[in-house]
Automatic annotation (TrEMBL):
The keyword Iron-sulfur does not apply. Keywords: Membrane, Transmembrane, Transmembrane helix. Residues 37-216 form the DUF2207 domain. This is DUF2207 domain-containing protein. The keyword 4Fe-4S does not apply. It comes from the Bacteria. Residues 570-600 are annotated as: Disordered. Residues 293-526 form the Predicted membrane protein YciQ-like C-terminal domain. InterPro entries: DUF2207, YciQ-like_C. Residues 579-600 have a biased composition (Gly residues).
Amino acid sequence: MEAVRRPFVLLFFVGLICSSSLTFSAIPVFAKERSFEISEVGINARIDAEGNMWVTEQDTYRFDGSFNGIVVQLDTSGSDGIDNFQAFEVTSQQEIPLVVEAASGKGKKIKYKVYHQAHDETNVFRFTYEVKNAVQVYADTAELYWKFFDSTNPSTLGAVQIDIKLPDGEAIPKEDIKAFGHGPLSGTVEIAGDGTVQYRVSPLPPEQNLEVRILFPASFVPNSLKVNHSPMLEKIMQEELKWANDSDNSRDASAHPWGSTLVYAIILLAANVAAAVILYFRFGREQKPDWNEKYYRELPGDVTPAVASYLMDYKIEPRDLMATLVDLVRKKYVDMQAVTKEGGLFHRDQKDYSFRLINELTDGLKPHEELVIDWLFRQLGHNGEVSLFEIRQYAGKKANAGKFLARWSEWQGKVVQEARQLGYFDTSKAGSRIALAAAIVQIAGFLIFAPDDVKWLLVCAAPLFLCGMKIKRRTKFGATERSKWKAFKRFLHDYSQIASREPLAVHLWEHYFVYAISLGEAKRMIAISRINLPQTGSEHYTVYSTVTHGDFGRHYDHFADSFNKTVSTARSHAPSSRGSGGGFSSGGGGGGGGGGRGAF
């Protein structure tokens, strides 16, 4: 064993030096390169009676720098080929056909280069193609088992929506359709009333599978030529159930043969932590803002509360949804009323809040604000009205939890997209690429060259891998705007102690209050409303009137808690899919298809 360990130890240090060299030498190469971002991917797929799949995909690219076009890589594995690939640029007036160059790749991969000159702009592209014989027919079921993206995808995809229409889907009983998703555990699967299977993931990290598996009666693809007369339904269901259980239940950590290799683990782990720290200070440390005062006494920018919240902490919380809804009240799109929900014989009456849509014209709203209106008032509500109790009750039902989380994830994605479009965040991926490349070199080295009893050392690459996934920072502009918002938060927090303060006008108080919700200062704003604000004309301001003339201040914690519990309840009721909808599982990988998206 000692003879085996000597070359391994030598190899280990060589690999370590190579990884470190990669980290340091690569820094100037990527620091100033161009970059692109794929913020949205929408895929509509239709299965016909022959078992072919007709795909229409629409991707939104944001380019920083000059590019000659985009790359669409597809994989024909598990099918009889891909035909009729076409690409278009989508504008507000028309679809413009684009020149496409196809080239065969490794195995059954096809690489399409779509030519389109772009420089510092956002473009929408649409692709259409046909997958021949994508459906496999068995004796007791038909199966679509297809990867739309796999480990070869190099790009982060912001928000992915896949809708798959089955042949004559309205005629298929919903209980006869079984749908599963394989990929990030944050993904959701839903079966709509018309038989359309809906997959939602936001975001999809690079090099991760997004695989769909749908079972439906074979009688709906009567002309399929891809037939296997063996029964497979029970075997597939057992396989998916196992993967779902594996994803739902936490697993005990595997035992590792530490022994004498512990010293190697400590050295390698320390080296990787050091490399991750260096990469963070080079690519992830916040830039110094151009403005840095204690107080900012007016709104720092014309952005929504949710966007301001994401700029502050890279997070979107349930309270940001609450702030968005209250802001729609302030903007006169929605009316808000305090109501009393009767508790009955054995329970006390409870305070609730009802919201009514009073303006259907949403042209002046941001996409994430429009989504809130469509989601809460048209999907959840009745006749344009919805209450906090109804929202929470809807999300608390297991049958609705997946749908609620899908919309919540979609809303978060649109908020992030809006924040990125404002130029708050550095879109360069240099630090991530360096860290991931170093981690992959180490992992591959251990898998290929190391003896079996020390292969577990590959876990020491985790700091680099996590660094590559998480490293991000704001631009100089973003750092400056964040500094202003932090100063504005301090202004709200210390308002009652500022000696030179003047009473706020009611319309300013309302405007500030919606941001105070996202910034965590709402209760202080409620307190100063009682002592500092002139009352004249306040009846024309719905938010101010509701907050100050009722019990809103006393019930604010309940009001805020309703939003927190609504989302947490939906999460707890959305397990990995057992076929009827729900969350993704981490299994799969055996389906056809695959590929990724990029630019050149």
